[in-house]
Design a protein that fits this description.
The protein has 388 residues and is an alpha/beta fold. It has 14 helices and 10 strands. Strands 1-2-3-4-6-8-9-10 form an 8-stranded parallel barrel, surrounded by 6 helices. The structure holds 6-deoxy-beta-L-fructofuranose (LRH) and manganese (II) ion (MN). 6-deoxy-beta-L-fructofuranose (LRH) binds next to loops. 6-deoxy-beta-L-fructofuranose binds next to loops.
Length: 388
Protein backbone atom coordinates (compact mmCIF):
# COMPACT_ATOMS: atom_id res chain seq x y z
CA UNK A 1 0.00 0.00 0.00
CA UNK A 2 1.40 3.46 -0.91
CA UNK A 3 2.00 5.92 1.97
CA UNK A 4 -0.33 8.90 1.38
CA UNK A 5 1.71 11.19 3.64
CA UNK A 6 4.75 10.56 1.48
CA UNK A 7 2.67 11.15 -1.65
CA UNK A 8 1.43 14.48 -0.31
CA UNK A 9 4.94 15.48 0.71
CA UNK A 10 6.12 14.75 -2.81
CA UNK A 11 3.23 16.67 -4.37
CA UNK A 12 4.00 19.67 -2.17
CA UNK A 13 7.42 19.99 -3.91
CA UNK A 14 5.85 20.05 -7.41
CA UNK A 15 7.20 22.84 -9.62
CA UNK A 16 5.33 23.60 -12.83
CA UNK A 17 6.55 26.50 -15.00
CA UNK A 18 3.97 28.52 -16.90
CA UNK A 19 4.78 30.20 -20.25
CA UNK A 20 4.48 34.00 -20.55
CA UNK A 21 2.95 33.58 -24.03
CA UNK A 22 -0.02 31.63 -22.70
CA UNK A 23 -1.31 34.86 -21.12
CA UNK A 24 -1.18 36.74 -24.43
CA UNK A 25 -3.42 36.43 -27.45
CA UNK A 26 -2.85 33.36 -29.63
CA UNK A 27 -4.64 31.48 -32.33
CA UNK A 28 -4.21 29.80 -35.64
CA UNK A 29 -3.49 31.00 -39.16
CA UNK A 30 -7.20 31.46 -39.54
CA UNK A 31 -7.79 33.77 -36.60
CA UNK A 32 -6.33 35.11 -33.37
CA UNK A 33 -9.28 35.95 -31.10
CA UNK A 34 -8.44 38.86 -28.79
CA UNK A 35 -9.69 38.65 -25.20
CA UNK A 36 -10.47 41.31 -22.60
CA UNK A 37 -7.82 41.92 -19.94
CA UNK A 38 -4.97 40.41 -21.95
CA UNK A 39 -1.52 41.70 -20.85
CA UNK A 40 0.15 44.43 -22.86
CA UNK A 41 3.70 43.85 -21.55
CA UNK A 42 5.93 41.27 -19.77
CA UNK A 43 5.15 42.80 -16.38
CA UNK A 44 1.41 42.18 -16.82
CA UNK A 45 2.13 38.64 -18.04
CA UNK A 46 4.14 38.03 -14.86
CA UNK A 47 1.30 39.44 -12.76
CA UNK A 48 -1.10 36.94 -14.35
CA UNK A 49 1.35 34.09 -13.87
CA UNK A 50 1.64 35.06 -10.21
CA UNK A 51 -2.12 34.50 -9.92
CA UNK A 52 -1.68 30.91 -11.11
CA UNK A 53 0.97 30.34 -8.44
CA UNK A 54 -1.10 32.11 -5.79
CA UNK A 55 -4.02 29.68 -6.27
CA UNK A 56 -2.12 26.45 -7.03
CA UNK A 57 1.05 26.90 -4.94
CA UNK A 58 3.07 24.88 -7.44
CA UNK A 59 3.75 27.27 -10.36
CA UNK A 60 6.59 29.45 -8.99
CA UNK A 61 8.39 30.27 -12.26
CA UNK A 62 7.55 31.76 -15.64
CA UNK A 63 9.25 30.99 -18.95
CA UNK A 64 10.07 34.00 -21.11
CA UNK A 65 10.18 34.18 -24.90
CA UNK A 66 12.53 36.59 -26.65
CA UNK A 67 11.69 39.02 -28.24
CA UNK A 68 8.03 38.65 -27.18
CA UNK A 69 9.19 39.52 -23.62
CA UNK A 70 11.93 41.98 -24.62
CA UNK A 71 12.53 44.75 -22.02
CA UNK A 72 15.26 47.36 -21.50
CA UNK A 73 16.19 46.08 -18.05
CA UNK A 74 15.99 42.29 -17.56
CA UNK A 75 17.40 42.45 -14.05
CA UNK A 76 14.58 44.82 -13.11
CA UNK A 77 12.09 42.43 -14.68
CA UNK A 78 13.46 39.60 -12.54
CA UNK A 79 13.11 41.78 -9.43
CA UNK A 80 9.55 42.66 -10.48
CA UNK A 81 8.78 38.96 -10.77
CA UNK A 82 10.29 38.25 -7.37
CA UNK A 83 8.14 40.97 -5.79
CA UNK A 84 5.12 39.19 -7.29
CA UNK A 85 6.27 35.89 -5.72
CA UNK A 86 7.46 34.21 -8.92
CA UNK A 87 10.82 33.66 -10.62
CA UNK A 88 12.08 33.78 -14.19
CA UNK A 89 12.39 30.28 -15.63
CA UNK A 90 13.58 29.13 -19.04
CA UNK A 91 14.56 31.69 -21.65
CA UNK A 92 13.07 30.71 -25.02
CA UNK A 93 14.86 31.79 -28.15
CA UNK A 94 12.98 32.77 -31.29
CA UNK A 95 14.59 32.28 -34.67
CA UNK A 96 11.31 31.49 -36.43
CA UNK A 97 9.70 34.88 -37.09
CA UNK A 98 12.25 36.90 -39.05
CA UNK A 99 12.05 37.17 -42.86
CA UNK A 100 15.74 36.27 -43.03
CA UNK A 101 14.93 32.83 -41.62
CA UNK A 102 12.68 31.73 -44.50
CA UNK A 103 15.15 29.05 -45.58
CA UNK A 104 16.40 28.37 -42.06
CA UNK A 105 18.14 30.07 -39.19
CA UNK A 106 21.23 28.24 -37.86
CA UNK A 107 20.93 25.83 -40.81
CA UNK A 108 20.53 28.53 -43.48
CA UNK A 109 22.83 28.20 -46.53
CA UNK A 110 24.00 31.80 -46.02
CA UNK A 111 26.63 32.13 -43.24
CA UNK A 112 25.51 35.70 -42.54
CA UNK A 113 21.99 34.51 -41.69
CA UNK A 114 23.45 31.75 -39.52
CA UNK A 115 25.55 34.31 -37.70
CA UNK A 116 22.49 36.48 -37.08
CA UNK A 117 20.64 33.52 -35.61
CA UNK A 118 23.58 32.49 -33.43
CA UNK A 119 23.89 36.06 -32.14
CA UNK A 120 20.24 35.91 -31.03
CA UNK A 121 20.86 32.66 -29.19
CA UNK A 122 23.91 34.20 -27.47
CA UNK A 123 21.81 37.26 -26.55
CA UNK A 124 19.40 34.86 -24.85
CA UNK A 125 22.28 33.55 -22.71
CA UNK A 126 23.06 37.16 -21.75
CA UNK A 127 19.42 37.45 -20.66
CA UNK A 128 19.85 34.29 -18.57
CA UNK A 129 22.77 35.97 -16.82
CA UNK A 130 20.67 39.09 -16.14
CA UNK A 131 17.54 37.27 -14.91
CA UNK A 132 19.27 34.45 -13.02
CA UNK A 133 17.72 31.86 -15.32
CA UNK A 134 19.74 28.63 -15.69
CA UNK A 135 17.92 27.24 -18.72
CA UNK A 136 17.92 28.20 -22.41
CA UNK A 137 15.28 26.47 -24.51
CA UNK A 138 16.13 26.07 -28.17
CA UNK A 139 13.47 25.26 -30.74
CA UNK A 140 14.29 25.58 -34.43
CA UNK A 141 11.51 25.83 -37.02
CA UNK A 142 14.28 25.08 -39.53
CA UNK A 143 13.41 22.66 -42.30
CA UNK A 144 12.48 22.40 -45.97
CA UNK A 145 9.26 21.96 -47.91
CA UNK A 146 10.41 20.12 -51.01
CA UNK A 147 12.89 17.28 -51.64
CA UNK A 148 16.16 18.70 -52.96
CA UNK A 149 15.44 22.17 -51.59
CA UNK A 150 18.61 21.94 -49.48
CA UNK A 151 21.23 19.38 -48.40
CA UNK A 152 20.01 17.46 -45.36
CA UNK A 153 23.53 16.55 -44.22
CA UNK A 154 25.01 20.02 -44.70
CA UNK A 155 22.19 21.47 -42.61
CA UNK A 156 23.06 19.05 -39.78
CA UNK A 157 26.67 20.26 -39.97
CA UNK A 158 25.51 23.87 -39.70
CA UNK A 159 23.20 23.01 -36.79
CA UNK A 160 25.98 21.20 -34.92
CA UNK A 161 28.33 24.15 -35.44
CA UNK A 162 25.80 26.63 -34.04
CA UNK A 163 24.91 24.45 -31.06
CA UNK A 164 28.60 24.10 -30.19
CA UNK A 165 29.05 27.88 -30.18
CA UNK A 166 26.08 28.33 -27.85
CA UNK A 167 27.19 25.41 -25.67
CA UNK A 168 30.61 27.00 -25.17
CA UNK A 169 28.99 30.28 -24.12
CA UNK A 170 26.98 28.66 -21.30
CA UNK A 171 28.17 29.68 -17.86
CA UNK A 172 28.41 27.82 -14.56
CA UNK A 173 25.16 26.05 -13.70
CA UNK A 174 23.60 26.93 -17.06
CA UNK A 175 22.26 24.47 -19.65
CA UNK A 176 20.29 24.42 -22.85
CA UNK A 177 17.36 22.20 -23.72
CA UNK A 178 17.02 21.23 -27.38
CA UNK A 179 13.42 20.83 -28.53
CA UNK A 180 12.41 18.61 -31.44
CA UNK A 181 9.26 18.73 -33.56
CA UNK A 182 8.14 16.39 -36.35
CA UNK A 183 6.85 19.08 -38.70
CA UNK A 184 5.35 22.64 -39.03
CA UNK A 185 6.17 25.13 -40.20
CA UNK A 186 8.30 22.93 -42.48
CA UNK A 187 6.33 20.26 -44.26
CA UNK A 188 8.97 18.00 -45.92
CA UNK A 189 11.96 17.85 -43.58
CA UNK A 190 12.55 19.41 -40.15
CA UNK A 191 16.17 19.64 -39.04
CA UNK A 192 15.42 18.56 -35.44
CA UNK A 193 12.37 16.32 -36.09
CA UNK A 194 12.58 13.75 -33.31
CA UNK A 195 14.06 12.80 -29.97
CA UNK A 196 16.82 10.77 -31.57
CA UNK A 197 18.21 13.72 -33.52
CA UNK A 198 18.04 16.00 -30.47
CA UNK A 199 19.60 13.31 -28.26
CA UNK A 200 22.46 12.68 -30.69
CA UNK A 201 23.37 16.36 -30.88
CA UNK A 202 23.15 16.75 -27.09
CA UNK A 203 25.21 13.63 -26.45
CA UNK A 204 28.02 14.97 -28.66
CA UNK A 205 27.98 18.37 -26.90
CA UNK A 206 28.08 17.33 -23.27
CA UNK A 207 26.25 17.44 -19.91
CA UNK A 208 24.93 20.99 -20.31
CA UNK A 209 22.86 19.94 -23.33
CA UNK A 210 19.65 18.02 -22.74
CA UNK A 211 16.45 17.24 -24.61
CA UNK A 212 13.02 18.80 -24.00
CA UNK A 213 9.96 16.72 -24.81
CA UNK A 214 7.07 18.81 -26.15
CA UNK A 215 4.11 16.44 -25.89
CA UNK A 216 2.55 17.91 -29.04
CA UNK A 217 5.53 17.34 -31.31
CA UNK A 218 5.29 13.64 -32.18
CA UNK A 219 3.76 11.58 -34.92
CA UNK A 220 0.31 10.26 -33.96
CA UNK A 221 0.61 7.00 -31.99
CA UNK A 222 4.10 7.74 -30.68
CA UNK A 223 4.78 6.13 -27.28
CA UNK A 224 6.04 9.28 -25.57
CA UNK A 225 6.57 7.60 -22.19
CA UNK A 226 9.10 5.27 -23.85
CA UNK A 227 11.06 8.34 -24.99
CA UNK A 228 10.83 9.74 -21.46
CA UNK A 229 12.06 6.48 -19.89
CA UNK A 230 14.92 6.25 -22.37
CA UNK A 231 16.10 9.88 -21.99
CA UNK A 232 15.85 9.69 -18.20
CA UNK A 233 18.01 6.55 -18.22
CA UNK A 234 20.58 8.46 -20.28
CA UNK A 235 20.43 11.53 -18.03
CA UNK A 236 19.35 13.52 -21.07
CA UNK A 237 15.77 14.44 -20.16
CA UNK A 238 15.98 18.17 -19.48
CA UNK A 239 12.28 18.84 -19.35
CA UNK A 240 8.85 18.94 -20.82
CA UNK A 241 6.75 21.37 -22.81
CA UNK A 242 3.41 20.08 -21.62
CA UNK A 243 0.26 20.47 -23.70
CA UNK A 244 -2.08 18.06 -25.44
CA UNK A 245 -3.46 17.47 -28.88
CA UNK A 246 -6.02 15.47 -30.82
CA UNK A 247 -4.29 15.87 -34.18
CA UNK A 248 -1.06 17.92 -34.57
CA UNK A 249 0.67 20.61 -32.50
CA UNK A 250 -2.69 21.78 -31.13
CA UNK A 251 -1.15 23.24 -27.92
CA UNK A 252 -4.31 22.46 -25.95
CA UNK A 253 -4.39 22.19 -22.15
CA UNK A 254 -2.14 19.39 -20.94
CA UNK A 255 -4.13 16.30 -20.02
CA UNK A 256 -7.28 17.60 -21.70
CA UNK A 257 -7.02 15.40 -24.81
CA UNK A 258 -5.36 12.34 -23.28
CA UNK A 259 -5.14 12.28 -19.45
CA UNK A 260 -4.16 8.59 -19.52
CA UNK A 261 -1.09 9.43 -21.67
CA UNK A 262 -0.10 12.19 -19.24
CA UNK A 263 -0.40 9.67 -16.36
CA UNK A 264 1.77 7.14 -18.21
CA UNK A 265 4.37 9.85 -18.86
CA UNK A 266 4.39 10.98 -15.22
CA UNK A 267 4.67 7.36 -14.07
CA UNK A 268 7.87 6.92 -16.13
CA UNK A 269 9.10 10.25 -14.70
CA UNK A 270 8.51 9.04 -11.12
CA UNK A 271 9.88 5.55 -11.87
CA UNK A 272 12.95 7.01 -13.59
CA UNK A 273 13.87 9.39 -10.78
CA UNK A 274 12.78 12.43 -12.79
CA UNK A 275 10.38 13.78 -10.16
CA UNK A 276 11.52 15.92 -7.24
CA UNK A 277 13.17 19.29 -6.53
CA UNK A 278 16.66 17.99 -7.45
CA UNK A 279 15.74 15.91 -10.49
CA UNK A 280 16.85 18.58 -12.92
CA UNK A 281 13.75 17.92 -15.04
CA UNK A 282 11.80 21.10 -15.86
CA UNK A 283 8.03 20.73 -16.07
CA UNK A 284 6.98 23.61 -18.31
CA UNK A 285 3.63 24.26 -19.91
CA UNK A 286 3.67 25.34 -23.57
CA UNK A 287 0.11 26.09 -24.51
CA UNK A 288 -2.17 28.55 -26.28
CA UNK A 289 -5.60 29.41 -24.90
CA UNK A 290 -7.09 30.43 -28.24
CA UNK A 291 -10.74 30.54 -27.13
CA UNK A 292 -10.81 29.87 -23.36
CA UNK A 293 -9.89 32.38 -20.62
CA UNK A 294 -6.15 32.27 -20.14
CA UNK A 295 -5.48 32.42 -16.38
CA UNK A 296 -8.17 29.81 -15.58
CA UNK A 297 -6.79 27.78 -18.48
CA UNK A 298 -3.36 27.80 -16.85
CA UNK A 299 -4.78 26.98 -13.42
CA UNK A 300 -6.70 24.02 -14.88
CA UNK A 301 -3.57 22.86 -16.71
CA UNK A 302 -1.47 22.96 -13.54
CA UNK A 303 -4.20 20.98 -11.75
CA UNK A 304 -4.19 18.39 -14.57
CA UNK A 305 -0.45 17.85 -14.09
CA UNK A 306 -0.95 17.64 -10.31
CA UNK A 307 -3.65 14.98 -10.77
CA UNK A 308 -1.54 12.90 -13.18
CA UNK A 309 1.43 13.19 -10.82
CA UNK A 310 -0.61 12.18 -7.78
CA UNK A 311 -1.87 9.07 -9.61
CA UNK A 312 1.69 8.23 -10.73
CA UNK A 313 2.94 8.55 -7.14
CA UNK A 314 0.12 6.25 -5.95
CA UNK A 315 1.25 3.31 -8.06
CA UNK A 316 2.04 0.39 -5.72
CA UNK A 317 5.58 -0.12 -6.96
CA UNK A 318 6.22 -3.29 -4.97
CA UNK A 319 3.05 -4.96 -6.24
CA UNK A 320 3.89 -3.84 -9.76
CA UNK A 321 7.44 -5.19 -9.62
CA UNK A 322 6.19 -8.48 -8.19
CA UNK A 323 3.58 -8.91 -10.92
CA UNK A 324 6.10 -7.95 -13.62
CA UNK A 325 8.65 -10.38 -12.23
CA UNK A 326 6.01 -13.12 -12.16
CA UNK A 327 4.99 -12.41 -15.75
CA UNK A 328 1.51 -11.63 -14.48
CA UNK A 329 0.50 -9.45 -17.43
CA UNK A 330 -3.02 -8.65 -16.27
CA UNK A 331 -1.93 -8.26 -12.67
CA UNK A 332 0.77 -5.77 -13.57
CA UNK A 333 -1.54 -3.78 -15.81
CA UNK A 334 -4.17 -3.76 -13.07
CA UNK A 335 -1.74 -2.23 -10.57
CA UNK A 336 -1.18 0.69 -12.89
CA UNK A 337 -4.87 1.04 -13.75
CA UNK A 338 -5.83 1.02 -10.07
CA UNK A 339 -3.68 4.08 -9.55
CA UNK A 340 -4.95 5.73 -12.70
CA UNK A 341 -8.57 5.08 -11.74
CA UNK A 342 -8.06 6.54 -8.27
CA UNK A 343 -9.89 9.84 -7.75
CA UNK A 344 -7.05 12.00 -6.41
CA UNK A 345 -9.04 15.24 -6.26
CA UNK A 346 -9.90 14.88 -2.52
CA UNK A 347 -6.20 14.22 -1.75
CA UNK A 348 -5.14 17.34 -3.68
CA UNK A 349 -7.88 19.46 -2.07
CA UNK A 350 -6.62 18.32 1.35
CA UNK A 351 -3.04 19.12 0.35
CA UNK A 352 -4.02 22.62 -0.77
CA UNK A 353 -5.68 23.27 2.59
CA UNK A 354 -2.52 22.04 4.34
CA UNK A 355 -0.58 24.49 2.12
CA UNK A 356 -2.93 27.28 3.26
CA UNK A 357 -4.66 27.42 -0.11
CA UNK A 358 -8.29 27.17 -1.15
CA UNK A 359 -9.05 23.50 -1.98
CA UNK A 360 -10.67 24.63 -5.28
CA UNK A 361 -8.26 26.98 -7.13
CA UNK A 362 -10.60 27.58 -10.09
CA UNK A 363 -13.48 28.69 -7.85
CA UNK A 364 -11.16 30.74 -5.63
CA UNK A 365 -9.71 32.59 -8.63
CA UNK A 366 -13.18 33.21 -10.08
CA UNK A 367 -14.33 34.67 -6.74
CA UNK A 368 -11.20 36.92 -6.50
CA UNK A 369 -12.44 39.50 -9.03
CA UNK A 370 -8.95 39.61 -10.55
CA UNK A 371 -10.31 39.14 -14.07
CA UNK A 372 -12.83 41.93 -13.67
CA UNK A 373 -9.99 44.14 -12.36
CA UNK A 374 -7.63 43.54 -15.30
CA UNK A 375 -10.46 43.74 -17.84
CA UNK A 376 -11.27 47.20 -16.48
CA UNK A 377 -7.65 48.37 -16.12
CA UNK A 378 -6.05 46.99 -19.28
CA UNK A 379 -7.69 49.25 -21.79
CA UNK A 380 -5.64 50.81 -24.56
CA UNK A 381 -2.12 49.86 -25.54
CA UNK A 382 -1.35 46.79 -27.62
CA UNK A 383 -2.34 43.41 -26.31
CA UNK A 384 0.52 40.89 -26.20
CA UNK A 385 0.57 38.11 -28.76
CA UNK A 386 2.95 36.17 -30.97
CA UNK A 387 3.63 39.20 -33.05
CA UNK A 388 3.60 36.94 -36.08
C1 LIG B 1 7.14 25.32 -31.14
C2 LIG B 1 7.03 25.53 -29.65
C3 LIG B 1 8.28 26.02 -28.98
C4 LIG B 1 8.01 27.45 -28.63
C5 LIG B 1 6.77 27.78 -29.32
C6 LIG B 1 5.95 28.78 -28.58
O1 LIG B 1 5.97 24.71 -31.63
O2 LIG B 1 6.55 24.37 -29.06
O3 LIG B 1 8.48 25.41 -27.76
O4 LIG B 1 9.03 28.29 -28.84
O5 LIG B 1 6.08 26.56 -29.43
MN1 LIG C 1 7.24 23.72 -27.18
Amino acid sequence: MTDLTAVKAALRTQHIETPSWAYGNSGTRFKVFAQKGVPRDPQEKLADAAQVHAYTGVAPTVALHIPWDKVDDYAALARYARDLGVGIGAINSNVFQDDDYKLGSVTHPDPAVRRKAIDHLLECVDIMDLTGSDTLKLWFSDGTNYPGQDDIRARQDRLAEALAIVYDRLGEGQRFLLEYKLFEPAFYMTDVPDWGTAYAHCLKLGPKAQVVVDTGHHAPGTNIEFIVAFLLREGKLGGFDFNSRFYADDDLMVGSADPFQLFRIMFEVVRGGGYGPDSGVAFMLDQCHNIEPKIPGQIRSVMNVQEATAKALLVDRDALAAAQQAGDVLGANAVLMDAYNTDVRPLLAELREEMGLDPDPMAAYARSGYFEKIAAERVGGTQAGWGA
